[in-house]
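Figure 3 (text version): structure tokens given as input.
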């Protein structure tokens, strides 16, 4: 009689294990859905993803510095991936430390770059890397280098800014991949675009965390200017940024559309609804929100509520 409870327990364990493996096999046979947040989560955890090439800023770290930043460099859990726009089959998705991007091989720029910015990440001791380099996760035909920008008259404009990455050596280095850059007029890059980047860090502190997506805009039917020696890079006509806060009871979203020129573009003049940015870009932002909340937040914009 004493052996029967043990046998029963072993039987239950065996049945549970069998069920686990069967369900895993069934899930493995299902066709992946590109727009599903759970599928997108695999971007950040897949063992098959190419390893990043060591960057100068990482190679120069001391063992003590690296150990001190282990916790900061660890992937953060964000299962809902609220910052990720709706994706399409065949879209080139690349994950780096702290952000995800969709790469546009037709223009050799990011289609969009998306990240969550937490309050704690707005500060840090990691210095600016400046180690611009080609993205090792792209094939050679699409690996833009700094040579492609030389004497072009355009800045290597960050989409996710280096100033958002002071919390991690890996994040700082990864944001200097050229896949995160677009040809940007200097006056915009160092002017109103930078002002919005600073505002987002301030908002992240106030809200606790915010979700951001940004990228280039190309006018339909217009002649496209390009730069580049080895790889042709299309010059955007403008840029967008959308920001979401889910601070309890004060949920809100806002969008911005800039022209890629040297004119002054104050935030109060370029702010708009997320719906308007969707119309300008053809993208669907924050698709993993509850539908009712998504519709409500994306239809309104109030810059004063962010300050």
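Below: residues designed for each position.
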């Amino acid at each position: 009689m004493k052996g029967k409870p043990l046998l029963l327990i072993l039987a239950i364990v065996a049945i549970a294990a069998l069920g686990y493996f069967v369900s895993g096999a069934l899930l493995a046979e299902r066709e992946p859905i590109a727009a599903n947040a759970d599928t997108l989560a695999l971007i950040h955890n897949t063992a098959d993803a190419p390893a990043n090439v060591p960057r100068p800023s990482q190679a120069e770290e001391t063992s003590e510095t690296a150990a001190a930043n282990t916790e900061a460099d660890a992937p953060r859990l964000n299962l809902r991936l609220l910052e990720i726009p709706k994706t399409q089959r065949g879209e080139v998705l690349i994950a780096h430390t702290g952000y995800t991007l969709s790469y546009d091989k037709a223009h050799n720029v990011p289609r969009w770059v998306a990240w969550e910015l937490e309050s704690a990440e707005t500060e840090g001791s990691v210095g600016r890397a400046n180690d611009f380099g080609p993205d090792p996760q792209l094939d050679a035909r699409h690996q833009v280098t700094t040579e492609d920008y030389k004497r072009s008259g355009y800045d290597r404009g960050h989409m996710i800014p280096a100033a958002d990455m002071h919390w991690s050596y890996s994040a700082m280095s990864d944001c200097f991949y050229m896949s995160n850059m677009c040809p940007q007029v200097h006056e915009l890059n160092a002017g109103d675009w930078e002002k919005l980047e600073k505002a987002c860090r301030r908002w992240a502190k106030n809200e606790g965390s915010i979700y951001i997506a940004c990228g280039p805009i190309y006018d339909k039917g217009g002649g496209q200017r390009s730069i580049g020696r080895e790889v042709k890079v299309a010059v955007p006509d403008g840029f967008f940024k959308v920001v979401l806060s889910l601070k309890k009871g004060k949920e809100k979203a806002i969008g911005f559309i800039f022209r890629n020129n040297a004119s002054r573009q104050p935030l109060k003049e370029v702010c708009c609804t997320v719906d308007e940015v969707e119309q300008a870009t053809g993208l669907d932002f924050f698709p993993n929100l509850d539908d009712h909340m998504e519709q409500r937040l994306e239809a309104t914009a109030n810059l004063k509520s962010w300050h």
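The radius of gyration is 22 Å.
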